[in-house]
Write a structure and sequence with these properties.
271 residues; mainly beta; Jelly Rolls; 10-stranded antiparallel sheet; 24 strands; globular
Length: 271
């Protein structure tokens, strides 16, 4: 059986509507945001680099088949309504790149080129994408194994993240973190209770938080909060950064240490 490729946008799976894609438009790269300035009397062009990348347009050539013209019309209508109901940036994945995803918007309608018999239609689907291709492995928490020295016998016992959340004085034997990409990532860091977390020369200090309470430090959206029953409560007054900016994970290997249990979702990405 021939495998057909599809995409999933904001939970809408194109193959559920009998719509499949070609991947010819999925390998493009974003443009770096720069200004070019011509200075009279000076050779060459002055480049002002803004240190970021612009959004890029991803185009899927798509196609579908149906038993008759009416069935094709229903397929296209149902799919159009499903995909246009997703406002703002949504997660976009496809079977051509199973190890990554994008954040994208779909805001341009499409018109199918229907065959003469009315049973097949082809069309282009355009998505306005953020420049990053996020790696699915970057959604997994980094494996930080804890060591707790039992007071009664001085024996060290290896304990996993989940098991040791209530143990005060736990420390981690992991002394470095490696970002496998050439780009800075903006992680989600979850600190349990009060203490410090160091990544390279960045020090995160959490104070006056009860043991067992998780503090979420989201560098991507620049939010600090606790969460109870799905309700977020701001907690920025309990967290300080020695660099006065949200932490990042730089490319390559950097030192890591902590005095409180911590979980780090790194959010690796590439272009």
């Amino acid at each position: 059986m021939v495998s057909r490729n599809y995409f999933v946008f904001g939970g809408v799976k194109s193959s559920d509507y009998g719509i499949y894609i070609s991947g010819s438009g999925t390998y493009n790269a974003p443009k770096r945001a720069v200004d070019e300035v011509e200075i009279p009397g000076k050779n060459g062009t002055l480049i002002i680099d803004h240190g970021r990348y612009e959004n890029t347009v991803l185009t899927y050539p798509a196609f579908t088949y149906a038993s008759d013209r009416d069935a094709l019309s229903r397929i296209l209508s149902d799919f159009r309504n499903a995909i246009l109901s997703k406002g703002g940036y949504q997660r976009l994945e496809d079977t051509y790149h199973p190890d990554e995803y994008r954040m994208a918007m779909f805001s341009v309608d499409f018109e199918a080129d229907v065959t003469a018999n009315g049973r097949a239609g082809g069309f282009d689907l355009e998505f306005n994408c953020k420049p990053q291709r996020f790696l699915t492995e970057g959604e997994e928490p980094l494996e930080l194994i804890w060591v707790y020295k039992a007071l009664e016998n001085e024996n060290s016992v290896l304990i996993t993240n989940e098991e040791d959340k209530e143990i005060e004085g736990a420390t981690s034997p992991v002394d470095s973190i490696t970002n496998p990409t050439p780009y800075e990532s903006q992680p989600l860091i979850v600190v349990t209770g009060s203490g410090t977390v160091s990544i390279g020369d960045q020090i995160i200090t959490v104070t006056d938080i009860a043991a067992g309470t998780d503090v979420y430090i989201d560098s991507e959206v620049m939010e600090i909060y606790t969460e109870t029953g799905g309700v977020k409560t701001g907690a920025s007054s309990h967290v300080t950064f020695n660099k006065n900016t949200f932490p990042i994970i730089a490319p390559g290997t950097q030192g890591f240490s902590n005095t409180a249990p911590v979980q780090i979702i790194p959010r690796w990405w590439r272009l």
